[in-house]
Amino acid sequence: MKKILAAVTAPDIIRVIDEACKKYTSYFDFDICSDTDEIIKYINYELPEIKVIDFTSTRIDSRQILESISADPWLHNGGIIAVVADMEERKEIEEQKNANILIVQTKRQFADNFSRLLHILWLNQQFLFSRGMQGQLGTSESGSFICGNDPIDIQVYTSFLLNYLYSSNRIDTEIRSKLHTVLMELLFNALEHGNCGISYEEKTEWLEKGNDILALIKQKAQLDENKKKHIYISYEISGTKAEFSIRDEGAGFDWRSRVKKEVTPGMHGMGIHISENLVSDMTYNEKGNEVRFFVSLAGKGAANTVPLIMSPYQAVDYADKETVCLQNERTNNLFFIVSGKYAVYSGRKLVSILTPNDLFIGEMSFLLNDRRSATILSVGHGKLIKIPKEAFLNLLRKNPHYGIFLSKLLAQRLYVQTQKTMALNKELAELREKENQK
């Protein structure tokens, strides 16, 4: 069961959330808060996966809530759905490029789309938790989405991919902005010119009349020949790069002449050339209905954003194979992982590798007042923030919700370890059964 916080005062928005959640009672539960301080407190302590924030409310300071979440990297799990008054405010919020916002909707759009949005979120919930289990995944990940002929699908899936890469420390803000531009451009090309068959000339004529392109897309998408068409998005994320493929079910286009064509500033038509300059090795299939490209990554778990309240503590740089702590020594410090990789040895046996996605080193012995259970060595260069026990306890007293976050982190690690143990036990039982059958 995932929790939704409705930071909302408008009855019509509350009604939309209530009706949508009734369709997914086994998956989502929601609470309503209408006071700014209570909302911030709820987010700090309950850590809801989805936050619906009503920017139209005069009783809620939505900007303060957004700033509180943005200022604290430990609250960046899940995502925010921002509800605004009009398209002008939507544009203003979108231009802030806040990594925590999944999507911005006007009240009308929210009423039309929220139920579908919940369905998409549930089907792809792994993208809501870019700080938890991702640290336990392998070095290469791949997946795919089937996107309908609806601009909201494009916005949501683009946000999912960007937030996942950004929050798992694979891309920085600059690459995130470039990738956002490319994905939106190519996905809308697949929708407009691919599945909906809108020609360059038709789009030009439509825009010159002052019309909204989304209205033309909606009109074309409802035609019988286009209703069942989809856009297929696939990705593969390795240690050094992320590759993307976007394929539509349209007739394709003469991409060779389009790529060679000289760029002329105008209302539209420059997107392909702009995209080529922002990513690497953009290629098309022969038909012209599929495009592939990749972006370079910083590497999984490259660096963590340091919470502001940790900035007073000592930052320590480590060279390759330098000792962080020794097995059986007394526990006096907790380490927050800013960057690098760290090998965990029990005796002479390598047990695990820690990265910034693991957040901490030594939290178990720290919390249990026990001696270190393992020796930690740096793998390559890295940086840790060294937090004395007394200072961390004072930090928790001032920010008790961090204790909840730490408990959640430990519970996730325990869950993963339990799953591994169960899998090993199953394998062992199968081997024994085979042995007994001989």
TrEMBL record:
**What SMART domains does its record include?**
cNMP (SM00100)
Can you give the residue ranges of the Cyclic nucleotide-binding domain? 309-396
Q: Which GO terms describe its cellular component?
A: cytosol
The record's annotation in Pfam families points to:
cNMP_binding, HATPase_c_2
GO MF entry, a single one: DNA-binding transcription factor activity
Output the InterPro entries linked to this UniProt entry: cNMP-bd_dom, cNMP-bd_dom_sf, Env_Response_Regulators, HATPase_C_sf, HATPase_dom, RmlC-like_jellyroll
**What name goes with this protein?**
Cyclic nucleotide-binding domain-containing protein
Say which species the protein is native to. Answer: Treponema maltophilum ATCC 51939
